[in-house]
Every structure is written in C-alpha cells, then in structure tokens.
Design goal:
Immunoglobulin-like; transmembrane; 9-stranded mixed β-sheet; single chain; alpha+beta; 1280 residues
Amino acid sequence: MTPVVTTWLETGSKNKKQQHRSAKMRMLICLTLFVELTLVDGQIQPMPINDPLTQTRTDFQPSSFNIFDSFQARPSGSGLNTDAQSFQIRGQNLKTIDWRNVDRRAEEGWWHLYPFGERYYDIDITWRPWRDLQIDLDFFLPFYGFRFNYTFVFPEGFVAFSYPQYIQPPYTMPNRRWPDEPDSSLIAAFMGEQSFIHVGETRISHVWYRVVSRPINMINPFGDFGFRQPVQQQQYLGPNLPPELANTQIPIRTYAGQQLKTAYGRIEDPELDIQRSMVGARGFKADYALIVTWERMGYGGAPKITELNMYETVKKWQNTYQMVLATDEIRTYVMFNYANVNWTSSTQAGALFGRGGKQSAMVGFNGGNGTGWYALPWSADGNSYKLVQYGSAQVAGRWLARVDEDIEYGGCSNDSIGVLQLDKPQATMLGGFTLNVTGPCFRPTDVLKMQIDESTLDCERLDMVMARCVVPVNSIFKTGQVIIRLSVDGGKNYPWWNKFYILMPSLARRQVNLINDPVVLNNNWRSFNPDNLTLTWPAANITVNPNAQVDITLWGYWEDVGSIARNSPNRGVFSFNPRTMSKTDMKPDAWRKYTGGLLQIRVSQDWMKDRGDGIYWSDLIPFGWYFHDVWQYQMGKNWATDMCIDWFQYDGRRENFYMFLENAQPCPCTLDQALLDVGRYVALMDCDINGDHRCYYTQGAQHCVVSVRSVWTGAGQVCCYDWQGWLMFSQDYEFNDQYLRFYSAGVPYRAHPYGAFPYKRPPYVPSLSNFYNDLLPYEYCCKWAGHCEFYFWRRITSGCQEYRPPAVGYIYGEGHIITYDGTRYTFNGKGYYVLTTLKSKNNHMMVQVRMEHPPKTLCKLLCCYYYPTTVVTGLAAQDNDSAVVQIYARKEFRRWRYKTDVYVDGTRVFFDTPWQKLQTFKGVTIRSRPRNMNMSELEVMFDTGMGMLVQEARGTLNVIVSVPPEYNETYAYRTDTFGYPRTEPATGLFGTGKCANFYRTMGLFGTFNNDKRDDLTTPDCNVVNTNYPPSEIEARNVYYEFGERWRADGIRHPLLFQTKFQPIYNPLTFASMNYQPIFDPWRNQNTSFWESLIFTREEVRVTCQGSPSCEFDYLTTGRREIGIDTLMNERKFEDQKRLGEKILISCGPLTKNYGVLKYPPGNNYLDGVTVTFTCQPDYFLHGDQQRHCINGTWSPGWWPWCRWRDEEHALKWFTGIIVSLLIVAVLVAIFCYCNSMKKEKLKRRGRQYAIGREIPLMNMSAGKVWHWPTRPLDRHEASC
C-alpha cells in the first residue's frame, strides 16, 4: 500500500468560451480542496476515518460567503476526503470508485448542498422498480393551500403532486386549458427536458432523494420551552456497514429510504438555515424533510454516451442542483441549492448545445388547478446560470420560499423598491415589541430607519438578510392597519413598505400568564387580599442571553407605577406574597391615580439591545392586591366604599353620555334580534355564546353584544340576554353582593371597548379607557365594597323602546334567494351579479356575488344529465368609502385548513388565532367566531350599520345581508336654500317613477320597502312577477328579465372583484350567450338511467318534506346531504327572520326595591305582558301586585316594594299600641275638655246652680224675650 498524494491547482489557460463566461460572472467562488486517498490494487480508497456525521467539521458546513464577497474559481476535477487530502477523479476510475465512502460534493466543493448519494443512503430513482416516480410520504406536506402525503419526482427537474399534462417544452404555467386539461401542482427547481449522461459504461447523471424525519420523542407538540431531553444516539444494525465505520453512531435507515434525525443541528437538518434566512421562521422546526438532488444532468438532446477521456469536458456542460422541502405539517419551506448551471434549455426547445432556444428552463411554483404560477428570477429567460452566482439567502446559489399557503419568497433582493417581509403580522398597541424585517439586501454602510404610524425608528442590521427594529413603549396610538415603511439611506426615501396590524390591548396575545389558584379562590389576581400569586412567561424567547435577568413591573394606564421584582432570574415563573412584598420603588401618590393596569416583564439590562423579544405584557387587571394596605392606611377600613362613592360623585359630574347613546343605539329586545343584527352589534369578547363564556362582568348572561361603533362621545352600548333570551336590566338587580354571582346585567359604557378616533386621548383609547372608566368601578363597587347599587345607578341598562330591527336577505344552496321583504325565487346566473345596492345622499352601498358551477358530484361523474346550475363562490362588498372586502370559497382539496380566502383592500387577512378573531379596517370590522378556526363563518360589519354573515359549506357560500331601517325606501326630494322641499324629482338616479323619486335598496335581494309586489325590480324600474314555487315560464322570466339585468358588467355597475385574487378562473369567460340554466329539474327529459342508480324521485319528495329548494338541489346534484343542508339552512333562516325582524313594543323595566320577586322570571317587559310581583318568604309586599304592559305603557300603579316580616310585625304591634294609646288619649282629652267647660260655666255664675230650665218671657209690644231663671231645686226635687 503506497500512499499517493496529489495536489492540483489550475494554472493553465481556459478556452475562449470559458473566458467569455468568466468575464460575465460578477463574482467567483473560492474554495481550496484537499483529499487524501490511498491506492490499493489500482483502486482509489479513502483512509480509515471516523464518520463525519457524528463529528462537527467546518468543511461540512454551508459556506458563509454571500453576494457581496469576492469569489475565487474553485478547481474542477478534484475530490476531498475528511482528512483534507486531495485526489483526482478521472473518467478511467469512475467505475472503480466506491461512492459509499466518498462524499459526492467533494469533487467540486458543493458544500452549500446538503449531503447526497450512496454514502448518505439516498435512493436513485433510475434504479427504482419499474421506474416508479411516486414517493409515499408518512406525513402531510402543505403546498399552496393543498395538503399532500405523496409526491412525484421527475428527472426533468421538478417534483409534482400529480402527473402534468406534458413534461416536455414548451411549458405554460398555469395550464391555459384548465379545467379541460389537468393543471398540476408542482415545484420546479430547473424544469426542462433533461437527459442522463454516461461516460463510457458509467452513468454520471443521477436523481437522488431521501426523506428525513425527526424522531417522535423530539417532536414537542406544545412548542419548545427549552426543556430538551438528551437525545440518544442509535447504532446502525444493517448488514453492509463498512469495516472502517464499525461501531460508529449514524442514523438508522428506515423503510422507504427514510432517515431519522438523531441530533440537533445536523447538516441535513435545514431548519437552522431557514431560520437564519427567513423572517418569521424563528420558531420553525423541520420535523420532516424531502431532499432531492439532480446530479450532473445533461440537457435534452445532449449525447448520452461519451468516451472516458471526455469526462472533464462533459461535466462542464452539466447541471447539478438540489431541492429541499421542509415542513412541520403546518408550514412548508422550499430551498433550492444550485451548484452548477451550465445549460439553460434543451434541443427540443430550440437550443443549440444547451443555450438559447424559444424557452429556457422554468424555476418556480405552480399552485395547480388554475391557481397561478410564481417564478423565481431568471426563470425561462436564458440567464438561469445566474441562479448559482446569486441567491436570496446568505449563501450564493441558495434560494428560499415559504409555500404552504401563499408563495412568500425568503431572503433579500437587490431591487430598489418592493414589499417588506415581516416576522409577525400584528402586535399590541402598547409597544415594546421587535420587528425583524427583510426586503432589500442590507449593506454594512446602510442607515436603516422605519416609519410605523407616527413614529420613526432606528433599526439595526443583523446581517445581509435581516434587520431588527424595536418599537418602544407608548409610541403607537391607534389600532387597525398601519403602513410600515423602511429606508436604507437614513430616511431620505422609504421605498420598501408593507401593511401591519395593531391590536388593541384586550385582544393582543398575552405572553404573561396570570395564574389563579383553583383551590384557594382568594389567591386570585382580581382579589384585593391574596396570600400568593403566580405568573409565567416564555423565558426562552424574551432574551437570547441565558444569564439575563428580568424586571417585573406594574404599568397603570401608560405609566410605570412600581415593581414586583427587579433583577430576577429569567426562569419563566415567579410567585410572591403581595402582603409581604416590598414597595420601596412605588411612585409617590400612585395609589391615588392607578387602580388597575398591566404587568410588564422586560429584560433588566437595556432590553432594546437584546436580540430576544425584550418585553412581555399581561392582561388588564385591578391593582387591589398591590395597593390594598396603602388604601387601608390612607382611607381606613371602609376604603373600598369610599373609592366607590368617590367614583360615583366624579362620574356624575362628567358629561352625560347616556343621552346620546340611548336614542342612537338602543338595545335589541330579544336575543334573536341581537344575533340577527350583525351590522350594528357584535358579540362581547368575554361573554360570547359561541366563544369565551366567562362573563365575569355580566354573570347570569347567556350572550352579550356590544355596538360595533361608538357615538361621538366615545361611548358604546352593551346589551346582555339571559337564558330565556330576554334583555337583562340593571333595574332588576337586587342590592346584595351575593346576587352578583348569578345576575349582573349589561350596561352602557362611557368608553367603547374598541376605542374610537382619535384614539390617543381619553375616553377614546382602545381597551384602556373602557377598563378605567367602566370595568374598574365595577371591581371596587361591586366586588370589593359590595355596594353595586352605586355602579348601577350610574350605568343604567338601556331599554329597547326605540329599537327597530333590521331587514335580512339570504342566498343559499344553488342560487336560492329570500329577499328582504320575503319573496322567494331561484336564480342560476353565471358570472358576477349585484346582490344588493343603495345609492343615496348618505350611503353608497354595493354587494356583489360571484356565481359558478358547483363541484362535480357522483351523479355527474356517472353521466347523469348535466344540470347547468350555479352556486355562490365569491363575495365583494363596500359601503361608502370603506375598505373593499372580498371573500372566496376555497376549492376542493384546499379546504383542509382554511375554508375561505379573505382580502381587504387587496391584502389577505387571516382569522385563525385568538388574537386575530376581530379586526377593524377602514369603515368595516370583520370577525370570525372564537371557536371557528377554519374561517368558515365570518361576520362583516360596516360602520353604516349594514352587515353580512358569510358561511362556507362544501365549497359554496351562504350569505345573509342585514340592512338597518335607514336603508328602507325614502323619498329623494331636494330642498332649496331656505330648507323647503322642491317639487321636481332628484336627478342622477336611473329609471322613472319610484326609481327617480326614491332612494331604494335594490338588487337580487329585492327592493327593501316592506312590499313584496315590487321585489323583483330591474335597474330600469321594471317589475317582474313570480310565484313560489315558480312555473318554468316564470323561472325563465325571472332569469332573463330580472336576474341578468343585475349582472355586474363594469359599465352600469362597477366591478368590486379584483382579478388578481380570482383563485380559479374568471366566470365571465364562460358566461356565454349559449348558457341556459335548468328551470324545472322535475321534467321527464331531465332524467336518466344513471340517476335511478343513485336515488329515486319519491325519495327526493320524502326527504325534502315539500321544500322546493331542497328538491331542486337534490335533483341537480344527486346528493342527499346537499339537499338536507339546503332544507336545514332554509328552515333555520326562516326562524331567524321571523323572530329577528319582528317589531316588538316594550314598556321598559319596572322599578322595584330590595326583596321583590317578579313573575315571569325572564326580563320580558313587552306589550301584552302581565308582571306579577311577590316578595321573598320573609317579606311582605307593598304597592300594586300586578302591572300590565299596554301599547308601550305600564298600567297605573305604585311601584312594588317589600318589608321584612319581623319588621312588619314589629311595626304592626307598634302601630296597634300607638293607636290604642291615641284612642285613650283622645277620650281623656274629651273628658278633660268637658270637665273644663263645666268648671268654666260654674265659675261665671259665681255659685252652684242646679241644672234647671229657663222660662222665657216675651214682651209682645217690644218683640223682646226675657229669660227668668227659675229657683234652685230642692234636693228631693232634683232627685226626682
């Protein structure tokens, strides 16, 4: 055995073509390659070495060069072993090399490629049985909304998820003949006709692949909290282990050529490279990866067999590149690594020796099914060789993209203008968060500045790809979408931008978790005297320094109040006793100003320079546990009552917001009305029947709603409903602190929970103003002091006397429509149509729908009669100058995660996380129900009061539109300069008659005027009449004379749909004059033999229970479940419309005192209701026992009140005694009076006279009468 050491350095001259190509290259690659081999029996063998997979070596790491560094030419034709000894591979020894012991990247220094070949147990697809190209995956691979558990690897430089229609040029992406021809989903690393090249009898072209998966014990479904268990290395037990690799720790080979990752940071684990090169990928873990390598592929038409001595020449005209698909089954990243690109096209495409031609190789992503093609730079333009010289990551030749939902290119760009990539789509209004951004390639000399809202920030360059911007606390003063702009020239120009969403504090993600003790109820963060409190936070993310310390501080409405702990170890959990906690750094008089706020955890030493998150916030909480001892010392033991009374007096001196709120936003009378009024009311965040049902401030409520917008004072209406569906009134509250456990009515808020413009001053600050003005007083009046009457005296529930319900229309199933006024008909148009519109002096509303064929069903696949019907698959709406909202139903196989795609002013928005469930945009608010994670139910609420409820079902959209009473038909008169109406009709409105003199809500949903007779009114004011169910003639008349007149053609009715967001195809392309929908599916010529194999018509009649809509859908689709869905949706909406649109007359709540019981127990104060009042067993009733609600007015009577039984008995005895004494006193008084009168008379006579009779004597002449007293009677005469 004689060692032969051969070193090689290229010093000779290149040929002219190589010189020309080198002159065009802007940068060269510099690598020095050394290989040590031994020559044994004429064969090249490596020296015995340890397996490189278990050792950390710099030569196996991706090169750290980038496009701004100078490159040197790397030598060709040399190999490298891990002991740094070089050798030369020639055509003569290709056949004798044992590639199981040689790294294929070593020959030309392709170290930015991940390992491939026999040495790493890759599979060559050319040796697979029957040349099977399909790879079955034991995991799901999301790609552009689809989800696959298989893939096809093609030698033509791409992987696909179905066989494409053609795999030879010319290529057209997407397939323009779709859906008549397949449009395959594929990922093209270098899509072009290619060939396998042989040198002599040795094939040097290969297509390698392997699947890498993380062991299940290394996959943490709850995220990485820094508690990693040590991973045990596994021994290879296969039969073909080389002797020099015996007892070496390497991955275990598993079925289907898969490998298990047995260590973190291995070279084939792409997650670290992805995290370094793409913003937003910091928490990504590549649990599964598919690595495909095309090695030394020749162009199509190249000679397949050459002589051995032509090896050096042949390999200079071959391409080597790699594709890495990494996923955690939710996110998918694609990495392209290009080693050599020496040809760009094939002979069949018109190329000459691999260059030129009509079409070069394509590089990019095809979504499939008509969803679109996304190309990388230099795709199909003849300059594909630049893919090696440049890259979007920090490694030349490496390109990255995220492809699970949308195609998001990673890395940086040399463009001068573009869209920024952000690591997060939203953050809290409180500030204190970091933004990692990428867009332009950052140079060391760049001066980076960012504009967000009204602030300009300095940013730090992390590397060529990423920059870090820190948003300070108290620097953003609004919620909703804001524009972020980035400058690289110190603020002179801001050519890079993106949209960013600012969350209100109550909806933002809470990284600080406040733990309430479920055993000791007093240890609660809302309590004022707990013994122990605990909080947690993600310690691994707040800082990158494992030895960093954190401060835990209190923030009361934008100001640092004090601290719980400073310079505390960053352990992720902290417990303390509030009673013994030190308050040495508490700000003076903080106890007077701040009764509640938030907890903040931040890195102690200069958090803005830390590379972690830096700051975390908690939920809004009261500070009773912090200031309890101070309040008690300053105000005495009745501190809570004093605070409540102080608030009561202060709030009474402020502006009376109630007078503006009562008439503008009265409460709906019933829960049915509140649920149907989606345009004016939305569910309260913490008391939602379909979500969070804690109802902490509204105990006993089944559901609460809050007004979508505030009045000009910033106030908002809150209405709550009990489990019988009646409105709960604060007047029914019994003044007992225990009563709050099961009854606490909704009350109007001085500050709307969502805030209002201008946001930055009270009481318009989102969340914080509401917490300070409305929620904190509830805490210390109701919870701490036990005197909730003070709170309810200032926050009286609004009645529903002035409430007027909305009108609703519904389109569902296959074009079935129920208008605002209740007319029913079916319209199967194909294209874009105006669902409802109104153009008046105050409103300009437009709602359009997109209608196309439903997915093919089993009946249609079995050659049943093809029913030309349509369903709603898209919706676009705008009211006044609001943002344009577009909602699309996702197609089949793309609904595994999201059911719909939502765009607001051209920007896609998501609602799949708790902090994204409610988002506010210009003039419109969109909400997804908290328990709905697939975006299949959306509520769209415009500031004008119009709302929409969009529900996705089996790829179709069912839409409910709710319009307020103001959208009803109104007379469109003019007024002169003195305010008097003119007689001539208003101009500018189309049509004649009512269409000229009235503002009317019209469209497919009919004319909203409470008159069914003119529901089907065309834009030119012609009325079409129909019955339900209609005859075939009536159905034709409705289609041609009414429905088609409301087509959104872009002329009379501007099209709201944006063409770039049409995920399948433009419906106008198939809305031809030859299209004619089905009008009567019951006709005999519409039946077939195949139909009888699926269902019978008698079965249709029985299933649909007489519903024409259900029968129509059942017959046209052949699917029983679709017919039943239509039937259930129709009946549900009928009940909603009947109950929600009913105008109810309310008399308002009756005032009652403590202890009064009302029957019926529900808060029903509607017309015709008789309310009976009783008292609790220990009380007696006073006042009228019954009151009647008649036409909005209560019958006359005294308000009821109750008195305690013992008190009543005591009062009765006391009254009896007093009355008796009064009677005796009166008798004594009478006796005394008579006796005194007698004595007075006797005194006037001077002596005692017996009682006798006076004898009158009359002087007849003078007319006078003289009285002569008689003599006193003797004793014996008086006795007689």
